[in-house]
DNA sequence: AATCCGCACAACCGCAGGAGT
DNA sequence: AACTCCTGCGGTTGTGCGGAT
């Protein structure tokens, strides 16, 4: 496979994004979407490579990013899924609405891994995320104000973890209500779990990439917030009252998970995807 | 008060793989 | 089939902050 030539570094800015750059990126994506990341910075007038723009958008500026501390349920979900999937952060992220793979990866490396290593599985977690934003109080105030400009929906609150659904895209750029709601979680059937998990991976990535861009391209002037939140999976879940299996039974389901893991290991061969 | 150290997290880098030609 | 382009992913690094010494 050919590898994309790295963006010509001549004259391209690196490092932390400035307020102005964020504004430019947000406003451009709101107006035009992001059908082509590579061409985006040029068209938007940003001295950044497309990769950097995409990363900034997906990891920080995207409207549906859920900021704030990870709940205990989210942490447990990460741990469970990491046991099952390994370092497939993007797949794990699809099960944590509003969380990015980068964020989950960071949390894992800086905190959860150590928590597991020290076998500290009981309630009190070590000091962490008391202020998720050590920097948030200073230079991120400005950044969050930027982000909030495209957050048409209020920040998620502590009840959000009750709305977690096993199979769910992290990105609300598009989602299908029926698809989301029909992906119910049947933990009793490990094959279905595997199927849904891996199906979810490709399914959502395809769905998201396709529909999101379609929306944007077909409605270039559509306000991104209205588009995204009109089909917000969180809203769907809220309406449908689908519960997260981890939330419902997560601490009581250790045996269940153990059973799942052991049964998976009994399988002669895992299908490759 | 100054320095050191660890933590948290944003951002970068290289690679893999799908899509298009 | 072979090639290029583009996107997404996972690993890693850089930087700023707060607490400890």
TrEMBL record:
Residues annotated as signal peptide: none
Superkingdom of origin: Eukaryota
Start and end residues of each HTH myb-type domain: 9-61, 62-116
UniProt keyword annotation of Ribosomal protein present: no
Pfam families (alphabetical): Myb_DNA-binding
Record's compositionally biased regions (Basic residues): 125-135
Family matches, as SUPFAM superfamilies: Homeodomain-like
Entry keyword set: DNA-binding, Nucleus, Repeat
Record InterPro entries: Homeodomain-like_sf (IPR009057), Myb_dom (IPR017930), Myb_TF_plants (IPR015495), SANT/Myb (IPR001005)
Broad class of the protein's primary localization: nucleus
Region (Disordered): 118-147
Entry GO terms, CC: nucleus
Record localization: Nucleus
Domain Myb-like: 9-61, 62-112
GO MF term (any one): DNA binding
Protein name: Uncharacterized protein
Naturally occurring in which organism (per UniProt): Lactuca saligna
């Amino acid at each position: 496979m050919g590898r994309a030539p790295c963006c010509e570094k001549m004259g391209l800015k690196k490092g932390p994004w400035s307020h102005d750059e964020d504004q430019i990126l947000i406003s451009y994506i709101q107006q035009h979407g992001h059908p082509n990341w590579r061409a985006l910075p040029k068209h938007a007038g940003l001295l950044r490579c497309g990769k950097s723009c995409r990363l900034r958008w997906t990891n920080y500026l995207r409207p549906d990013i859920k900021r704030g501390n990870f709940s205990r349920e989210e942490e447990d979900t990460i741990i469970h899924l990491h046991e099952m999937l390994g370092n497939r952060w993007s797949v794990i992220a699809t099960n944590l609405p509003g969380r990015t793979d980068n964020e989950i990866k960071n949390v894992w490396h800086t905190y959860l891994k150590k928590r597991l290593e020290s076998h500290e599985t009981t309630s009190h977690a070590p000091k962490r995320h008391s202020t998720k934003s050590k920097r948030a109080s200073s230079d991120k105030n400005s950044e969050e104000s930027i982000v909030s400009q495209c957050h048409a929906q209020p920040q998620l609150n502590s009840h959000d973890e009750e709305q977690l659904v096993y199979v769910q895209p992290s990105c609300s750029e598009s989602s299908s209500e029926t698809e989301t709601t029909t992906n119910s979680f049947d933990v009793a059937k490990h094959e279905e779990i595997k199927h849904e998990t891996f199906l979810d991976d490709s399914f959502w990535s395809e769905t998201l990439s396709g529909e999101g861009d379609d929306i944007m391209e077909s409605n270039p002037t559509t306000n991104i917030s209205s588009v995204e939140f009109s089909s917000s999976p969180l809203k769907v879940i809220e309406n449908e009252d689908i519960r997260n299996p981890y939330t419902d039974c997560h601490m009581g389901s250790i045996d269940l998970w153990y059973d799942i893991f052991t049964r998976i290991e009994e399988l002669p061969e895992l299908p490759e995807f």
